[in-house]
Amino acid sequence: MVEKGVAHEHYAVLHNGEEIGFVSSGMFSPTLKKYLGMVYLPCEFSIRDTEIEIVIRGKPVKAKVVKKPFYVPAYRK
Question: In this structure, is residue 57 part of a structural domain?
């Protein structure tokens, strides 16, 4: 999430005002101190740094596509 907001399951995902997908899960990451969400998107919108919007309580909130994993663990397996 670029702007403050929590993406919850089944929230709509928009690009240029058009619905393109939905949120499968969302949560606060205590490690990163940021809100994260997993979304289903068509392939053409899944490119890193693509700007999208999550509709939270009827208002579009800015987010962007990032690569997983969200962080590198400090331990070794």
Answer: yes
Interior/surface letters 36-58, b for 16+ CB within 10 angstroms, e for the rest: bbebebeeeeeeeeeebbbbbee
- Residue 48 belongs to some domain of the structure: yes
| Cβ contacts of 77 within 8 Å, gap of 6 or more | none
The predicted pLDDT at position 3 comes to 93
Count of structural domains, the chain: 1
What number of other Cβ atoms are within 10 A of residue 69's Cβ?
7
Q: 59 lies in which domain range?
A: 12-64
* 26-54 confidence digits (pLDDT tens): 999 888 888 999 999 999 999 999 999 99
